[in-house]
Each structure stands twice: as structure tokens, then as C-alpha cells.
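Subgroup meeting minutes
Present: P.N., E.W., G.H.
Scribe: E.W.

1. P.N. recapped why we're keeping a running log of single-chain structure predictions: easier to compare across weeks, and new members can see raw inputs and outputs side by side.
2. G.H. added today's entry (200 aa).
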Amino acid sequence: MVQQLLDDLIERGLEPAQPMLIVQEGSKALRKAIRKTFGEQSPVQRCQLHKRRNVKELLPKEYQRSADQRIKAAYGMKDYEPAKAQLEKTVEWLEGINPSAAASLREGLEETLTLHRLGIPGELRKSLSSTNLIESALSVASDVANKVKRWRAGDMRLRWIAAGLLAAEKQFRRLRGYKLMPKLIAALGSSAIAGESQVA
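Output recorded in log:
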């Protein structure tokens, strides 16, 4: 199903060879399909908010706030190396509290820092470090579709989803940090070149 979605996007004109930043939550099926479809030339940014939430849910209540503050502080750091070091220290700290929470933070840790590694500055990094942008649009589309009380033909569902996304579009605003997009484009180009040299 996930692979079919990506294949459909390509049929509609998405160019898989064009380096792009892919922001996703922790779905392993989606990650596998992304790797198969786009290879390694398009870096993946794992959603930091999902990661924080997943770790928090595994902890006893008395440790949740402290753990979340540690992780949030790491993601708020300017540079990649200090942020990674802080997350690794947090993993060690969590090992003594709940090994499952530690494993959750460790899993995909590197990909939660992709924008740090690419050197993307504050506001743009904050905008692109979670899946909130698409989830907000889908929430509006869902609210519109929920007004339907009786579904008929299959294409009716598609029409209502389209209507919901058009309604969401009216609420779109400029991306915070949009003026820094040239830095992201340049970083993606460098990332793709680095990936090609590693393969060679």
C-alpha cells in the first residue's frame, strides 16, 4: 500500500532522481518504501515530535517531563555534534529508568538530526523537523470529510478528500524560515554528490 502511494506520486510527475528532503514519522514500512524508491540521495528527517511523544509514553509519569526536556534541548541545539552527544547521554540516562524508552530514542536517532547534519538554520529547521505541516492539512481535510453521513460510490471519497484539501489550502501560510530555502537546496545537492561518491 505504501509503495503503491509512492509509485502513484511518480506517475503523477514526482521525479525520484531529484534530491529532496523527506520528512516522515517512524513507520518502518514507509521508510523501506522510501529507500527502495528514492535510494540514498534524498535524506530523511524523522519527526522529532513523534520521537519525543513515543519516548514519553514509555516512561513512568515522574520521568516524562525531565526526559522530554532533555530531548527537546538536544533538538534545539544549533550544531549536529553537540545535539547528537546530548541525545546519546539521554539514551544512557534512560537505560537506568526504562530500557524500552532508551531503545525508542536510540532507534532512528541519527535521522532525527538530519537537518542538523545538513546545517539548516533555526527557523527553517524548526518548520521541517516534524510532520505537523502535512498533519495540519490532513486534519482540516478530515473535518470536511466527516460531514458526510452516507458514502456512496468510491470516487465520492476522493472528491471529498480533494474538497477538504482545498479548504486546508486556504489556511496555508508562508513556511517559517522560507528565505533560508536556498541553503536547504544547496545542502541537498551536496548531500546527493556525497552519496554518489560513497557509492563509487
